[in-house]
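seq/struct pair 1
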Amino acid sequence: MKAYDENGENDHNDETGESDDGGPGTGARIPLPRASVEDDGRALPGAAPVALEHQVLTSLLGAWALAACSAPEAAAVEEHLGECDSCADEALRLREAVTLLQRPESLDLDPALRTRVLEGCLERRPPRIPVPDWAASYDAETARLDALLQDFGDAEWHAPVRLRWFEDDGAASRRTTVAGVIAHLLSVDGTVAVGLGLDDPLGDITAPSRAPAARTEAYWRASHYPPTRAVRAPWREQSHSIVRTVAFTGDAGGMPVSYGDFELPLRDAMLDRAFECWVHAEDIAEAVDYPYAPPSARHLNGMIDLAARMLPGVLAARRRAGLATPGGGPHLVAAGGPGRSLRLEIEGSGGGEWLIPLDSPGAVGSADHEVAHVALDGVEFCRLAAGHVPPAEAAAGQVGDREAIRDVLFAAAGLSRM
């Protein structure tokens, strides 16, 4: 066995190269590593085109368009394309066809991305001050709308939008723009902000009343007209401030929030604002021809429940205005007692059943006094309550007292406002 020193030289060989056993000189049996062009700075050799016939090169065009040729074949094809016009045209056509085979990737963010990321984070580490359940739908819907607005250009911000609602048993509407809709949400969300002790977005602007329509019209008149994309920043900051503030309220969701001619407890006001945010986000998405999904089933159920709880009061107001059928005498009862009821069955996402007392807002719905049954899809019912579907056209399964059914459907539409 040969021994080598640290320099890799055989210390048993003499200067003539003969081995120590008298054999011919063979040098070291472990050769030095081969030098590479990558080690000495020399340029790597390029792929030389191979000499191929025209027919062969033409047959390779499909593989070249798919980047499936070897390096020499690709070099030969590309050299040929500079000389042959017919093959160059065919290669261009094939390259364009390849792009059609690839699935286009949208650059738009998924509106649900923020929700999924937050859910994943919160599963690992719950927040020290979580958002109350009754405010979660507002947090989610404002985040979804903000994601929709993220990449809007000037053309989208000034796209025409028609706000629709139901008033005096007829359709009503108001024409504005995408920026005008955000200004509307900013103004009306301000009623919740004021109730929480935050700044009023109207500032020094004086509105004739706290009613949502009055606040919106006052803001529109006083602001730069028409509203521009600049309205997004204050709306976004206000929604974040509202969510942060309610996170510190604990169980104080019963605090009243004034809408001018009526009040809602804070927990219901947050549901109301989430509902309107979703409805107007759909208005905006329709204006810019962009798909927009309904809220999650849990949040949709909360919105439907709020509408169902508000129906008896709207029925009573319509009855006082002579717009609804007078209550049935034998079943008209005092507050807290069972009375004539309509069973409202909501199918699909966010579904459930609610017994709606017909004769008194203080009465209790009773299955024993059920006089009618109405079945509606959850999203369809919400669009009815938003004034986007006329009561006479609501796709509903109906059984029982026709006048009671008509009164409830018209009362549901009467929940809407600008």
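seq/struct pair 2
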Amino acid sequence: MPRWKALPEELDPQVREFATQLRRLVDKSGLSIAAVSDRTGYSKTSWERYLNGRLLAPKGAIVALAEVTGTNPLHLTTMWELSERAWSRSEMRHDMTMEAIRITQARDALGEFGGDGPGASRPGPGPGTGTGPRPAASGGWHGPESPATPPRPPAASPTPPAPPAAPGRGRRRTAIFVTALVGALLVIAGAVLLTDLGGRGDDTAKVVESPPAKPSPTASELPAGVKCAGDDCTGEDPELMGCGGEFAETATTAKVGTAVVEVRYSETCGVAWARITEAAPGDTVEISSTQGDDQPQTGTVNADKDAYTPMLAVPSAAAAEACATLTTGVEGCTTAGG
């Protein structure tokens, strides 16, 4: 059975060449993927993605691999930069394709509502109804009372009658009016409430203001390769979003049975996640915040005997706690802030 899986056919040629070069370096070193993971600080699952062309390795992982395998990091990072550009172009093409699909779906969905837009046909009085003008056999227009006489020229140009409303349009206008009225009442009620809270004397209970949260860095302020920060990272994969590797550190560690549980923290992204190693398939690990109500993030160990959770936004590493539950029934957590 070959050691490496076939690279995806849709992979960019530049990225394919780079992934092949990484495989050669690993083969030449004689290291297993687990050994590469231990020596570089990147998880085994991440290295499997990098080496199988499913994810472009971050620059920090490439530098670490160069050190482990005794390769000139300058040459390897040069190849990485070319691959990173090719990967970005592929992502851009993918995003444009998905956007085109969404636009097509939106147009199709709007078309299901019928012709309310410009140029749509509107129902009107049809022939044989006895009302409104109708074409005569000889051309021209005749009223219902004198079918054979030509029309008299009007003394003045009367204002043309408004076209009849399409069925259901009156109901929609009524619903829109009611919705707007309710919204206006809510705005007025909110303004009165705020004025009431702020205009009382000292004998009235004051509203306690929460301290302002530390603003998350904008996309332009993040280092290259880092794709999120703060709440935007919650629930995301730390390796996929670039928060791992050189931008992360182990804040706390605990031994739970035979497994090791860690709190991994990235100050750059403002997040933490839990990692478990030396575990058994079925063991679970969880990251939670001691200073917020955010839903904890969990991960489950597979055949690799390690796992990590999605990220969770935390104000500091001290606010994060990692817990593990083993299939043997043993449970344990790291000490928050320690």
